[in-house]
Write a structure and sequence with these properties.
Elements lengths: L1 H44 L2 E4 L6 E13 L2 E10 L13 E11 L4 E11 L4 E6 L8 E2 L5 H9 L4
Antiparallel strand pairs: 1-2, 2-3, 3-4, 4-5, 5-6, 5-7
Length: 159
């Protein structure tokens, strides 16, 4: 009789153990998916378009997927990558590898401003970030024959 009880409890323990293992495996899968999903969304959401520049050490691009239009105004993200970082940020002592900017342009007035700007070091760390209140932006003229003018033509096309 004792053997029968042992086997019965053994079966229940084994069944519970399998349920626990299956639950753990499902939970682990969910955790892995949730950890990877935001990164895949970031990469999927970006679509960088290069702009030609005469600077030899600079790659300049805009994120086409970030373009938002509203009336005469457009907003988008841009980045400047220094192939070989030369300039050093004085307070941190780190060389600047990349600059990221969230730019605002007025297509009718041909003016621009920055909502956000950051400098990124060679190791990927953020050196500096600057945020501006959209309601307090000071718009400046976009000069002819500049990358700013190329961006204006691209962003305002069809407006």
């Amino acid at each position: 009789m004792r053997q029968l009880r042992f086997r019965r409890w053994e079966g229940i323990f084994q069944e519970r153990n399998n349920v626990s293992r299956i639950g753990f495996e499902k939970g682990l899968t969910i955790v892995c998916v949730l950890a990877i999903w935001p990164m895949s969304m970031v990469f999927a959401a970006e679509s960088w378009r290069a702009f030609p520049t005469e600077a030899k050490n600079v790659l300049f691009s805009v994120d086409e997927a970030s373009l938002v239009r509203g009336g005469d105004m457009v907003k988008f993200r841009e980045r400047i990558v220094f192939i070989v970082p030369e300039k050093r940020d004085v307070p941190s002592g780190k060389k600047v590898k990349e600059k990221r900017i969230h730019r605002v342009m007025n297509c009718r007035d041909k003016t621009q401003a920055h909502l956000y700007a950051s400098q990124i070091a060679e190791d990927g760390s953020r050196i500096e970030e600057v945020y501006r209140d959209e309601n307090k932006l000071t718009m400046t003229p976009i000069l002819p024959d500049t990358i700013g003018e190329q961006e204006l033509q691209w962003a305002c096309k069809g407006l």
